[in-house]
Hints:
Helix 1 packs across helix 10 (250-257). The chain is mostly helical and 303 residues long. It is built from twelve helices and no strands.
Amino acid sequence: MLDIPPTKSKSLSPSSQGLVAILLTVLCWAVAANVAFDLFTAGIHPLELAGASATIATFGLAILHSFWGSGQIKPMNRKQFVLGLVLVLLVAADYVAIQQLPVAVAIVLLFTSPILVVLWTAVTTRRTPSRFVLLALILSILGVVLVSKILESNLGQVNWFGIGIGLTTAIFFATYIILSEQLAGTGEPIGILLRTYAVASLFWLAYQFTQGLPLSLLTGDRFPKVLAVGIVGNLLPYLLFFWSIQRVRAERAAIVATLEPFVAAILAWLWFGQTLTLLQIAGGISIIVAVTAIQLRQSSHQQ
């Protein structure tokens, strides 16, 4: 009787599935950033778009949970509530940065966040960062200086407010990564993200109540774009990101996510003709090299 070797499964491993999810996340964020920039150019206020997109994502997640969720929604814990608050601040700051800066610049500043994650780890573990980490931080700071065009402009012409908001998004995104990793093993992603966005939507609705109904979002061809930002910029990418962290470490997810500035820059060039100077391109590469190198170093130490 012949021994027939078992056929190998052609399905992707959990790690590969997670990396594919991150690639899709990057594409979603890059597309949504450019659609949001288009809306801001048309006169839409960033905070109005942030509130509308969060509400759309909440309804979408509720629909997904009714089909694929694991039964009833569990009570919210403190970390999930805090994650919702962080999401409010992250989305608001991100949209303001996109309004104030070229899309690629805003996203490059956002993706200094993995460096902050490493620093947070060093503080919480009470371990002094190595010379390699300090070198990566210097490289990252140099990249921010180049991307921000501080060396190419008079100090009076630099958009300090936009740069400050862009760096603030990095703080919020680093906090979001850390909390998401802590919550990744506590339940299925749709239910957790639904509770997170429910908190965010409540805050946005409270804010919008003081400002009046954002009827400008419903006029002309704006509503399909707002809907796209809510789905492609919030619901899908954050769900994919949370799902991926359950399969790969946050550090490795951050490596692939640093592709977004390149993708967003290409889309901004194709859609709006936005171009970067050679120094800005060098700065973006400097940040991505620093982030990628330090995350690869962290990953190799944890294996």
